[in-house]
Amino acid sequence: MPSSPSAQAKSEFAEIVLAAVKFGFEGVEIGIDDVSASISIPKSEMGDLCTSIAFRLGKMMKKSPREVAIHISTNAKPTRLLKNFSEANGYVNAVLDEKEYSKLVLQQVIAEKECYGASDSGKGKKVIVEFPSVNPNKPWHVGHVRNAVLGASISNILKFVSFNVEREDYIDDLGLQMAESLWGWMNISSKPDKKFDQWMGEQYVLVNKEMEKQNMKKDLDLILKKLENLDSEESRTVRELAERCVRAQLETAMAYGVYHDVMIWESDIVRAKLLEKALKLADMKGILDKPTDGKYAHSTVVKMHKIARFAKELIGNEEEAKVIVRSNGAATYIAKDFAFHSWKFGLIDSAFRYSKFIDQDNGKPLYFTSKSGEEMEFGKVDLAINIIDVRQKYEQQIMKAMFSLIGEEKIAEGIIHFAYGRVTIKGSDLSTRSGSWMGDGKNFTADDLLREAKEVAHKIVSQSESISDKSSFDSISNSVALAAIKFEFLKFAAESEIVFSWDKALTFEGDSGPYCSYTHARATRVLEKGAFEIPKSVDADKVERGADFELIKLIGSFNEMVEKAAREYRPNVITDYLLNLSSLFSKFYEKMPIITGGESKEVRLAITYCAKQTLGNALRLIGIEPLERM
């Protein structure tokens, strides 16, 4: 793929500056990478590009930055894309040739279309993105929506830069929460009367209320003991309940446009003896201790002083050791995660077999681990990104440090904890156990959120005069509702907490997904009215240094924004870009007549087309389908 227009311009600028430095400053040890790293975007009145390299050179040569910058700007030679150079306060500023640069940007967008902004920077690398990993005894609530749309967006972005992306969901169908749900099935009700995940979640709340009234420990301990036998009647029942719940959850996932490649089930991890294999490996490497007395007697632990050197955040921790396997033989979260990631990176083999769970409505099958089935090529990755809330940061650090301890630094470096902030409701956690996701009249579930968003969107869409086909109201309303919800969850830095508000999630104005979708639809209408046809070549002679060129420059930087979002795992880089692009297109639309632009009509229509294409590409990266009408 050709490099992005902005990257080409910066590359030319770096070469010009380096040539000017070498002309007159012989013997200075500085390379093209040093110059490239110093390039940034100045205030618009100063130019289009600037470099701070004169400050570094000044120190090296004991000259003032201004003296060095004047030398560089005086000796800089214009190229196809760059025409003027100047010095200001020690910086070297450069001005793009608006006609040549505009031609480069417009022709590249027109040529690459849906691929514009993509790259091959991740080619040859495989990554697992694990999300949202909701327990299979509840409906998704609004907190799970944040996890899901973050995971889906990161997957889209990484795929756009050529990573081989495996979208994975971890299903914990063992443990106390499933024992409690089985108790409810046997003692409260086994007759669901609504969507199964909703019903199961409500019953789970009832079970926990019942636990406050009576001591159910003996009952639950007995169930847990029986669940250890994966071939027991209790285990088969729990798996059936979990699968029914997951099927209902997947209805929600697909309604949000969230899809996966494979689901790894906890019971199949146990069946494949992944934990035993991983602990044997760790024991052979000598990182495990098994105290015979004291606080950790008969447990398997990792001493904190061993792992703290691999994670500075753990230095000074008051704990002497971290329990990996409890004295009763129960594995901790860290042990299970260490085993799971040993499989993800191909460090240990599994006996996993896979079967098709469902056909998803995006046309792709979803596979899951099962007792029978076929061997398939899942796992064995270079990177593993875990979309887990920030409260699991400590456990993730310890798990990564364990890989460093056994000499697998590459695996440790390849584990990315994408820590996101909690979603709260007026200061309350979204606790499934307590039922805080259940409200009067409406619940804080993903299903209720989408249902209400669609109702609001339908009222707005039905008033649109640009939609002649009334039968499309429902599909457009659904797209607008999803745009509102997804954008609201993605526009914040992931680590920040969100206090959920129905009003904010359903906003259709200002800094929102519907605003960006509306901009895309507006550009579509302009192109239709102007009877635009894609030209074989673009004549940019009528481009001015106004709102048109500002918009072109932003379009030209799209790939750099995509690379930044991929490198930093930040979908909010794309939402910020979308808002800027929508704002600049609106200014261009208002200030520079397009259809009535006379001799400038054709190039302004081409700019409109390229803005629309770039908006569409960016919207799809965050899981929003661009609208042609709104």
Set down the secondary structure blueprint.
Layout: H1 5-22, H2 32-37, E1 39-40, E2 49-51, H3 53-61, H4 65-75, E3 82-88, E4 91-96, H5 98-112, E5 126-130, H6 142-160, E6 164-171, H7 176-187, H8 196-213, H9 217-227, H10 233-255, E7 262-265, H11 266-271, H12 274-284, E8 300-303, H13 304-307, E9 321-325, H14 333-344, E10 353-359, E11 365-370, E12 383-389, H15 393-405, H16 409-414, E13 415-420, E14 423-425, E15 428-429, H17 446-461, H18 473-490, E16 498-499, H19 502-505, H20 513-529, H21 547-556, H22 558-568, H23 572-591, H24 601-621
Parallel strand pairs: 5-6, 5-12, 6-7, 7-11, 12-13, 14-16
Antiparallel strand pairs: 1-2, 2-4, 3-4, 8-9, 10-11, 14-15
Question: What does this entry look like structurally?
Answer:
With 630 residues, this protein is an alpha/beta fold. It has three domains: 5-96, Gyrase A, domain 2, CATH 3.30.1360.70; 126-429, HUPs (Rossmann fold, 3-Layer(aba) Sandwich); 446-621, Isoleucyl-tRNA Synthetase, Domain 1 (Orthogonal Bundle). Helix content is 49%, strand content 12%. It is built from 24 helices and 16 strands. It has a seven-stranded mixed sheet with strand order 10-11-7-6-5-12-13, with helices on both faces. It has a four-stranded antiparallel sheet with strand order 1-2-4-3. A hairpin with a 5-residue loop joins β10 and β11 (365-370). α7 packs across α9, α20 runs antiparallel to α24 and α23 (572-591) packs antiparallel against α24 (601-621). The protein is globular. The chain starts with a helix and ends in a 9-residue tail after the last helix.
